[in-house]
Amino acid sequence: MILQIDSIDPARGKPGVEVTLTGTLLQAQTLRWGDEDWDETYWEGSASGNGTVDITFKVPPGAGTVQVVALNGNEQSNVVEFTYV
Q: By the 8 A CB rule, do 68 and 79 touch?
């Protein structure tokens, strides 16, 4: 099983904005947003027809640029970045 984030949209924004992570994320159990981990109760996931999954998440308070990673146990995806404006 491979976790892969293909995109984050938008990649810049303010706290509270809704972002969508798209990729091979069906097995994701946790999102690491900067230094904080968020379990499945904090986002919505939906499968698309081409085998990818969209995860929709509201941006928590923060500043600067944070790294975003999807996790499942010891497995983690690639890193994408979100920049607060």
A: yes
